[in-house]
């Protein structure tokens, strides 16, 4: 038998289990070229943009990538973590991975994080984990609600890397956790605690989810339904009436119809209906990022106050908070069952 093994087989490291947290990605800097490189990779993903490739290529390369990097770079600059010189999404995702590593403990488990677009790339981290001896790897896309535009493409990217490996590790993917009782409880408590800490009583609390083209819902993406279910379960957990916790969809991109009601239009309309005090959170995001900090906490507030609103508060994502990490730890331990 040994004649068939590579000469250095004796140096194969001890078998370990890998846990890889996956998130969307972010530019390496706020300047034009860094943002352009990131947006180009992101918006070239056919899971994200389903428009015919021949049609999309000139629109993306000649129009969008000429103007959008400046606009997005300016938005990133407003929320950039200057001390670490990184975007909040990467800082927080790293915190989550480090915190989880401490919780799972032991030298037989390797916890790391990777991004679908930009750095650290999914391929580089998977290869590092394999070199460290991880023969079993759990992929954890950090999206509570499943979407082909996020969860599926994160997994695709990991499988693309596995395709290039002669000796592939065994792999599992963690499912979306939009109705996981622990997630619902954690999210609901973060809303109740967030609201109780405010110096005002909100007339309405908005759960603002990242949007997507309506077309994707019609083609069978379950994201929209899972968003509504998360909010319904949270509302039931809190015992709130239907009108107290609203669903809206943010971050519209391009000219097509996206999921409605739109967050910005809702914030504009609420004061006119006598609802002048709001709290808002973004449950589709496991970590605060440009879409929550710049678009909602800053831009959303401006829109609301400009329309006659009186009080506005943004409730942060679960991030690497103790309760958020309890939830991630419980989910990961459950998915590792049989491997540990
Ligand atoms: C163009 C179509 C897009 C779809 C569909 C989409 C879905 C989607 N996205 C997230 C989570 C995040 N998106 C983020 C940024 C972002 N998203 C799009 C476009 C689509 N997203 C763009 C063009 C951008 C870049 C920012 C900009 O230029 O305005 C981020 C933040 C990244 C960061 O660095 O902070 C996250 C997270 C979900 C959950 C989702 C599901 C439907
Ligand atoms: Fe997005
Ligand atoms: Fe946005």
UniProtKB/TrEMBL annotation:
<keyword id="KW-0350">Heme biosynthesis</keyword>
<protein>
    <recommendedName>
        <fullName>Ferrochelatase</fullName>
        <ecNumber>4.98.1.1</ecNumber>
    </recommendedName>
</protein>
<comment type="similarity">
    <text>Belongs to the ferrochelatase family.</text>
</comment>
<dbReference type="InterPro" id="IPR001015">
    <property type="entry name" value="Ferrochelatase"/>
</dbReference>
<dbReference type="InterPro" id="IPR033644">
    <property type="entry name" value="Ferrochelatase_C"/>
</dbReference>
<comment type="function">
    <text>Catalyzes the ferrous insertion into protoporphyrin IX.</text>
</comment>
<comment type="pathway">
    <text>Porphyrin-containing compound metabolism; protoheme biosynthesis; protoheme from protoporphyrin-IX: step 1/1.</text>
</comment>
<keyword id="KW-0963">Cytoplasm</keyword>
<dbReference type="Pfam" id="PF00762">
    <property type="entry name" value="Ferrochelatase"/>
</dbReference>
<keyword id="KW-0627">Porphyrin biosynthesis</keyword>
<keyword id="KW-0408">Iron</keyword>
<dbReference type="InterPro" id="IPR019772">
    <property type="entry name" value="Ferrochelatase_AS"/>
</dbReference>
<keyword id="KW-0456">Lyase</keyword>
<dbReference type="GO" id="GO:0016829">
    <property type="term" value="F:lyase activity"/>
</dbReference>
<dbReference type="InterPro" id="IPR033659">
    <property type="entry name" value="Ferrochelatase_N"/>
</dbReference>
<feature type="binding site">
    <location>
        <position position="210"/>
    </location>
    <ligand>
        <name>Fe(2+)</name>
    </ligand>
</feature>
<feature type="binding site">
    <location>
        <position position="291"/>
    </location>
    <ligand>
        <name>Fe(2+)</name>
    </ligand>
</feature>
<keyword id="KW-0479">Metal-binding</keyword>
């Amino acid at each position: 038998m040994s004649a068939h093994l590579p000469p250095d087989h004796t140096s194969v490291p001890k078998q370990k289990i890998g846990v890889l947290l996956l998130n969307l990605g972010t530019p390496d800097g706020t300047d034009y070229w860094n943002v352009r490189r990131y947006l180009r990779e992101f918006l070239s993903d056919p899971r994200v943009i389903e428009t015919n490739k021949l049609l999309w290529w000139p629109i993306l390369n000649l129009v969008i990538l000429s103007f959008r990097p400046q606009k997005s770079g300016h938005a990133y600059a407003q929320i950039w973590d200057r001390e670490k010189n990184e975007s909040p999404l990467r800082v927080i995702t790293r915190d989550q991975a480090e915190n989880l590593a401490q919780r799972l403990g032991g030298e037989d488990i390797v916890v790391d994080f990777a991004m679908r677009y930009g750095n650290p790339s999914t391929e580089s981290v998977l290869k590092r984990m394999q070199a460290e001896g991880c023969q079993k790897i759990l992929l954890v896309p950090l999206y509570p609600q499943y979407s082909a535009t996020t969860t599926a493409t994160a997994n695709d990217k990991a499988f693309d890397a596995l395709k290039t490996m002669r000796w592939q590790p065994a792999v599992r993917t963690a499912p979306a956790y939009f109705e996981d009782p622990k997630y619902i409880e954690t999210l609901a408590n973060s809303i109740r605690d967030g609201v109780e800490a405010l110096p005002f009583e909100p007339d309405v609390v908005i759960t603002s989810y990242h949007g997507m083209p309506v077309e994707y819902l019609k083609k069978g993406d379950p994201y929209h339904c899972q968003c509504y279910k998360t909010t319904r379960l949270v509302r039931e957990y809190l015992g709130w009436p239907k009108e107290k916790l609203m669903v809206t969809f943010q971050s519209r991109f391009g000219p097509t119809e996206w999921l409605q009601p739109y967050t910005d239009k809702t914030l504009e309309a609420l004061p006119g209906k006598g609802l002048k005090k709001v709290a808002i959170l973004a449950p589709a995001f496991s970590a605060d990022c440009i879409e929550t900090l710049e678009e909602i906490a800053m831009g959303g507030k401006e829109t609301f106050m400009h329309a006659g609103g009186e009080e506005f508060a943004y409730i942060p994502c679960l991030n690497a908070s103790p309760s958020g990490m309890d939830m991630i730890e419980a989910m990961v331990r459950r998915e590792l069952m049989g491997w540990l």
